[in-house]
Design brief:
Distance between the termini: 65 Å
Helix content: 25-40%
Largest sheet: 5 strands, mixed
Strand content: 15-25%
Oligomer: single chain
CATH class of the largest domain: Alpha Beta
Number of helices: 8
Number of domains: 2
CATH superfamily of the largest domain: Ribonuclease H-like superfamily/Ribonuclease H
CATH topology of the largest domain: Nucleotidyltransferase, domain 5
Structural class: alpha/beta
């Protein structure tokens, strides 16, 4: 085992070590035995398993699905959808866009582009949208992302006397308007350009959201 370990520069774990030893010695050693012997000899793979980056968290707040596929709105600021999506720029850098979509006409109520997908990004987006209201109390629909199930988000919704609606886990149909918006935006306005800097990406998004609504994009 030590000879093989040195020869392959330590990349074998016990499974590949077992296969190699059995092939060379024409035996059928059990993997558990090889694992135990490697442990005694102080041999282990230099390749580490990739750590799980996404940790499951218990939601602080959940809401019923009050939108329930009723996507039509009779007036502005009656029904909103919100979500976060990822963009790339430069060689491998990432930016995150949080936006609120008015289901009445497909226009963007507010948006924030940031370097991290966190509570601050989402809270700033909803704060901007709430400041634009003039006595309206819209329903806002989201998925169950950690930002939307947080107490900070709930507090903002409650203070504005808005109604929160959430898709159930694995049931994203009611988040369709936002998913459709992201898909169309990226296909028709994002993928055809290359962005070297965060500022380039931000400027392009500002132009899109200032002059173009979802209906305009679909009708291009």
């Amino acid at each position: 085992m030590k000879v093989i370990h040195k020869k392959v520069e330590g990349i074998y774990g016990y499974r590949r070590m077992t296969i190699n030893i059995n092939r060379k010695t024409e035996n059928n050693f059990n993997g558990k035995r090889i694992y135990r012997l490697m442990d005694i000899a102080g041999i282990q793979s230099v390749i580490r398993r990739k750590k799980q980056q996404n940790k499951r968290t218990n939601p602080q707040h959940v809401a019923d699905n009050r939108l329930n596929r009723k996507f039509e709105a009779e007036k502005p600021n009656e029904k909103w959808g919100t979500d976060v999506t990822e963009f790339k720029y430069g060689s491998s850098k990432k930016a995150y866009l949080s936006a609120i979509l008015d289901l009445y006409d497909g226009s963007i109520v507010s948006y924030v582009l940031g370097h991290s997908n966190n509570n601050k990004l989402v809270f700033k987006t909803v704060d901007q949208a709430i400041n634009l209201l003039d006595g309206e109390h819209p329903l806002i629909h989201s998925d169950r992302g950690f930002q939307y199930t947080s107490q900070g988000f709930k507090r903002r919704i409650d203070n504005a006397e808005m109604t929160h609606s959430m898709s159930r886990v694995g049931k994203c149909i009611d988040n369709g308007p936002m998913e459709s918006f992201w898909g169309t935006l990226k296909c028709e306005k994002y993928y055809i350009h290359k962005y070297e800097t965060f500022e380039d990406l931000s400027k392009q998004l500002m132009n899109i959201f200032t002059f173009i609504t979802m209906k305009d994009i679909k009708n291009d």
